[in-house]
Amino acid sequence: MKIEYRKGDLFSTECKYIVHGCNAQGVMGSGVAKIVRDKYPEAYQEYLRMFRTEGDLVLGDVIWAESNGKFIGNAITQEFYGTDQRHVSYDAVAHVMWEINTITTIKEVAMPKIGAGLANGDWNVIAAIIESELKRVKPIVYEL
């Protein structure tokens, strides 16, 4: 489905579902993930719980948690963190979007330019993946 772009704060969205990219190392120390950690503590705690019980998280998985009236999807889209190289996995982004598309209660999902910030992915590639995988769920991408 075609991406709808909106200007503004992702966390002011009226969408019930928000997804953002995370690493598989149990760290939400910067970028959008840090904002999620601070604004949606239950989402962060669920991410940490899964990391502590499962060890390294699996690329392409989504860890959902309800927090402050939203369902937050912590999408494991990168193995490591940092800005020294491209960390986002395009295959993981594709699997995350495929998984979201299978959840029948989700009609639309808000997200940042997932994987294209600190993870150094190419937004044109990622946008094509999102539009290809989300066949029935409307993607709404927030740009600051």
How would you describe the overall organization of this protein?
- With 144 residues, the chain is of the alpha/beta class.
- It has one domain: Leucine Aminopeptidase, subunit E, domain 1 (3-Layer(aba) Sandwich).
- It contains four helices and six strands, in the order E-E-H-H-E-E-H-E-H-E.
- The strands form two sheets. It has a three-stranded parallel beta sheet with strand order 1-6-5, with no helix packed on it. Strands 2-4-3 form a three-stranded mixed beta sheet, sandwiched between helices.
- Helix 1 (31-39) packs across helix 2 (41-54).
- The model has no long low-confidence stretch (mean pLDDT 95).
Core attributes:
alpha/beta, 3-stranded parallel sheet, 144 residues, 4 helices
Please identify which CATH superfamily we are dealing with: Leucine Aminopeptidase, subunit E, domain 1
Structural class: alpha/beta
* Overall strand count: 6
- In CATH, the topology is named Leucine Aminopeptidase, subunit E, domain 1
Shape: globular
In percent terms, what proportion of residues is strand?
25-35%
Radius of gyration: 14 Å
CATH class: Alpha Beta
Mind describing the biggest β-sheet?
3 strands, parallel
Mean pLDDT: 95
The oligomeric state is: single chain
Neighbour order of strands in the largest sheet: 1-6-5
Low-confidence stretches: none
Order of helices and strands: EEHHEEHEHE
Helix content: 25-40%
Number of individual domains: 1
N- and C-termini, Cα separation:
22 Å
* CATH architecture descriptor: 3-Layer(aba) Sandwich
